[in-house]
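seq as requested:
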Amino acid sequence: MRKKMLGISVVSVIAIAIGVAIFASISLADTLDLRTVSGHTVWEFRRNGSEIVHYLFENNSHRVLATEFVDDQNGGWMGLTFDIDNFNLQNPNPLNALVHQTESTVLGMSSNYQTDETNVVWDEKHDQQSGDPRFDKIKMYNYNTDTTTTIESYPYPSTVSVHSPWVSGNYVVYVRKPTSTSITSVYLYNISTQTSSRISPQSTAATSPKIKGNYVCWLDYRNEATTGIDIYGYDISTQQEFTVTTASGNQYLFFMNDRYVLFKGAETATDHNNMGVYVFDLQNKTTTTITTSEINEARMSSGSNADNTYVCWDEKVTNNNGTFWAVAYKKVSDNQPTFITDTSTLDYHQVPDMITQSYVGWEKGVCKNAMGVPYLYKMSNQTHTQLDENTCIGSSIIIDNSWIMWTRFRHNEGNNYEEFNICGCALP
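struct tokens:
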């Protein structure tokens, strides 16, 4: 069953998800497909055509965020926000939930269109007269006041680059690089005072900052020659730097919630393939080992303590059918993990996308790192719900209080186009 989205002439929403969404220049041929899968109704918002749409989702305040490439002579990348509370279960038209969109003329976003309860921040890449496009702006939009603020702007002939913003409460963190040959530093912007200051050491490269409450964490290269890439943090309330990990081998920052930093790291400086999962307590400054098994992906739920924060990951298991990636999960306080399926008979790969305090969103795939059929696992009764058709190639599963959403990839060789469409259904 397909509903035509008629009566929309200039702009059409192509995305819906939890936290942030994306906009694009549209045609009247946009459609909403409805289908029944495993007893529930799935909707898919689709566009005609020749464009490649990319989505980035963040679970914040019942909002959906995404970024999209707009393929026209004036277009570039766009960011959109949809408020899930305005979404109609009986007629899930994304346009009814739209609360913000960026301009469509920027050349790129560095995969950062990110929000908290009040603000959304993003970076922009613009064409430079020198012929060297760079990220030269950081912007912020306030949902309550409907105002946009430019936090940083360095148009040509400046060589300064700014990118990768994150927002939480009264603060925004981002990366600034003075020249093409200089190191990157982490900066903190105070929304109330409209001032910025560098919080990472001037003499060392720092990238990929994230912020939650009073804490900022980033990837740090000061010990790269000896221990590899480390993770450091900054306490805004005390204005003091602290160490998250300087263990041997490269460490990678995954997620932060109100209490913990989830990261994966190599067990040795030379074995970069064997990545374990660890959780750092921001209050007590202690580290808990989640698993030392070789893992590929990891996710963490919201939470304020070890008993209500959940972690999921995929690790290798071997049985009579071969070697596969299997999804496991546990609370930070648990000693042993729980696998979402019987690993003794597993004959396919599993990929974790999201975990809450009640559910795990995961993909059933045929090969490692490939998108697959989206599934939902319910912890309380250890049951699985297949969310979409067996032919679906999906990713980026998002779980909210009432909704579950995912991205579906479609490719048509005959017409030479690719699509990334947003699908969703009511939480079973």
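The two ends are 21 Å apart (CA to CA).
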